[in-house]
Amino acid sequence: MLAAARSNIEPPKIISVALLGSLVAPPAAAQTPAASSPEPAAPPAPPPPVPQPVEPQRPRPVQPTPPPPKPTPRPTPRPVEQPVTPPPQPVQEPAPAVSEATPAVTESAAASTQNAASNNSSETGSSAGGAARGDPSGAENAVTGPSSSASYLNNPKPPYPQASRRMMEEGTVILRVLVSAQGKANRVEIKVSSGFARLDQSARQTVQNWRFVPAKRGNTPIDMWYDVPVNFSLRNP
User: Fold this and answer.
1) What contacts 126, CB < 8 A, 6 or more positions away?
2) What is the CATH number of the domain that holds 176?
3) Which residue(s) pair with 147 in the sheet?
4) Residue 1 lies in a domain
5) Domain for residue 196, yes or no?
6) Is residue 88 part of a domain?
7) What is this entry's stated membrane topology (predicted)?
8) Residues 115 and 103: beta-carbon distance below 8 Å
9) What dihedral do alpha carbons 173, 154, 161, 198 form, nearest 10°?
10) pLDDT digits 0-9 by tens, 34-55
């Protein structure tokens, strides 16, 4: 039965399909004047390169330079101190009472001359008396006191301070002077003050620069203390 059925089936027909009508062409596009072809746009500038972050270089650790060694100072040899031998000082023998009793020279020239004359006469008499008594050391050890009355010494008078004149200051200052064997005033001390410092200093500063005839023992000059009174009087300036 199956075979009979298969024989009754018609073979398939091929149907050709044709498109009817004409192809409709699209309307012609309106022709527009040809525009000038635009120039090609310049290519955009490339973006600037993004700077890469630069890592800061770490500074190399600087090794400290050791300071140069200080030169070791050489020890300075200490100078050998030579023992200083003080020069022998002249031994002053105790002067007889004549030197202490020597009349002092005053500021007045007339009084100075009279005192010097009496001083010389007393010393000459004492030395002559010693020689007359047969004392062998009378002439050799006769002591002559210092003097400041010799005219050739040209010792100036102490100036009268102007302030003392205005204040009506008067008085007598007695200076104790150590006269050296060279005739200089080695030391000047105020033995008796006049009562006014200005008068005392004027006398002291002036007598400090005086020249003296040194004391002598026989013919040898010696150091000796000597009293010098200086009188300041407004009636006899």
Assistant:
1) 98, 142
2) 3.30.2420.10
3) 213
4) no
5) yes
6) no
7) Single-pass membrane protein
8) yes
9) -40
10) 545 566 666 777 777 777 777 7
Domain span at residue 223 reads 143-232
Please list, in sequence order, all residues whose beta carbon lies within 8 angstroms of the beta carbon of residue 13, skipping any fewer than 6 positions away: none
Q: Can you tell me the distance from the alpha carbon of 70 to that of 55, in angstroms, rounded to the nearest whole number?
A: 43
Torsion (CA) 198, 202, 203, 209 in degrees, nearest 10: 160
Q: Which residue has the tokens 């090794």?
A: 63
pLDDT given for residue 109 in this prediction:
36
Q: Per the domain annotation, does 116 fall within a domain?
A: no
For the stretch 67-77, pLDDT in tens is 777 777 676 76
Alpha carbon separation from 190 to 37, 89, 97, 179, 227 (Å, rounded): 135, 25, 22, 15, 10
Residue 5: pLDDT band by 50, 70, 90 thresholds?
A: low
pTM of the shown model? 0.44
- The whole-number pLDDT of residue 57 equals 73
Confidence grade of residue 132 (pLDDT, cut at 50, 70, 90): very low
The per-residue pLDDT for 74 is 75
Residues whose CB falls within 8 Å of the CB of residue 93, separated by 6 or more in sequence, listed in order: 217
**CA 159 distance to own-chain centroid:** 38
Burial of 10 (0-12, 13-18, 19+ CB in 10 A): exposed
Alpha helices in 54-196 (DSSP H): 97-100, 109-132, 162-166
